[in-house]
């Protein structure tokens, strides 16, 4: 595997379900990001982890719970979601630091539908 | 707070045309600017990254320029092809932060 991978690619869940999205980066980066992309809206940053520490929580509802066990893996735990949470969820990674380019690399996304 | 605007929002052109997509930003103290391509329902693919000290970057038929003083970047696509049809996004990282600000994108259709 190369780059940034995300599983599952598609997910349909009911409002009472609990599910998790997984992201893995094979680039040796130290920062990982979760974004939400809804139809007709710009990309919304949800969470940022730098060296496994959460450094940004962009006022995301508590029904979304991130987890970053190490610099290569990022999870997004979902529970009691609403239909308006249906969107494309994108994971990205980058290398941070004064001597790096900070170029972001994205995964293919998980298309989530909440019924 | 950095704001990024992309004009036009949508563009439809015949194959073979040379195109210019625009990205403007309000805070000129940027660290870098990155252009992405996104196909429908897919993730973002990095096209070009311009550091604040650079004026332009080229990759194949793509050329991105940066003018920090005027708060602008342009993505030039030469000899457009139907396969170039996608949404193009620019993202700006402001100095001191590794969190980018994205524009809304330009949706491009190149018809045969």
Question: Can you walk through the features of this model?
Answer:
The complex is a heterodimer of chains A (115) and B (112). Chain A is 0% helix and 56% strand. Chain A has strands spanning 4-7, 10-13, 18-25, 31-37, 44-50, 53-57, 64-70, 73-79, 87-94, 105-106, 110-114. Chain A starts with a strand and ends with a strand. The mean pLDDT of chain A is 90. Helices cover 0% and strands 59% of the residues of chain B. The radius of gyration of chain B is 13 Å and the shape is globular. Chain B starts with a strand and ends with a strand. The relative contact order of chain B is 0.35. Classes of the chains: A mainly beta (115), B mainly beta (112).
- Low-confidence runs of at least 5 consecutive residues of chain A: none
Distance between the termini of chain B: 41 Å
- Helix/sheet category of chain B: mainly beta
Give the helix tally of chain B: 0
Q: Give the strand content of chain B.
A: over 45%
Q: How many E strands of chain A?
A: 11
Radius of gyration of chain A: 14 Å
Structural class of chain A: mainly beta
* Average residue-wise pLDDT of chain B: 94
**How many β-strands of chain B, per DSSP?**
11
Quick one: overall form of chain A?
globular
Helix content of chain A: under 10%
The secondary-structure element order of chain A is EEEEEEEEEEE
Task: Give the SSE layout.
The complex is a heterodimer of chains A (115) and B (112).
Chain A: E1 4-7, E2 10-13, E3 18-25, E4 31-37, E5 44-50, E6 53-57, E7 64-70, E8 73-79, E9 87-94, E10 105-106, E11 110-114
Parallel strand pairs in A: 2-11
Antiparallel strand pairs in A: 1-3, 3-8, 4-5, 4-9, 5-6, 7-8, 9-10, 9-11
Chain B: E1 4-7, E2 10-14, E3 19-25, E4 30-38, E5 44-51, E6 56-59, E7 62-67, E8 72-77, E9 86-94, E10 101-102, E11 106-111
Parallel strand pairs in B: 2-11
Antiparallel strand pairs in B: 1-3, 3-8, 4-5, 4-9, 6-7, 7-8, 9-10, 9-11
């Amino acid at each position: 595997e190369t780059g940034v991978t995300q599983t599952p690619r598609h997910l349909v869940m009911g409002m009472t379900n609990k599910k998790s999205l997984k992201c893995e980066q094979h680039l040796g980066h130290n920062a990982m990001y979760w974004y939400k992309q809804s139809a007709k809206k710009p990309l919304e940053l949800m969470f940022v982890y730098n060296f496994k520490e959460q450094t940004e929580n962009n006022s995301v509802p508590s029904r979304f719970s991130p987890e970053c066990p190490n610099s290569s893996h990022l999870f997004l735990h979902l529970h009691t979601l609403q239909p308006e949470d249906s969107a494309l969820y994108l994971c990205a990674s980058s290398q941070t630091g004064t001597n790096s380019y900070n170029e972001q690399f994205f995964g293919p996304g998980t298309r989530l539908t909440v019924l | 707070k950095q704001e990024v605007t992309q004009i036009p929002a949508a563009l439809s052109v015949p194959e073979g045309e040379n195109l210019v997509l625009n990205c403007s930003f309000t805070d000129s103290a940027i660290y870098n600017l990155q252009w992405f391509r996104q196909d429908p329902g897919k993730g973002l693919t990095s096209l070009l990254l311009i550091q604040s000290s650079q004026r332009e970057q080229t990759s194949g038929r793509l050329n991105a320029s940066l003018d920090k003083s005027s708060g602008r970047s342009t993505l030039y696509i030469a000899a457009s092809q139907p396969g170039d049809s996608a949404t193009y996004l620019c993202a700006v990282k402001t100095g001191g932060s590794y969190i980018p600000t994205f524009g809304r994108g330009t949706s491009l259709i190149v018809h045969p």
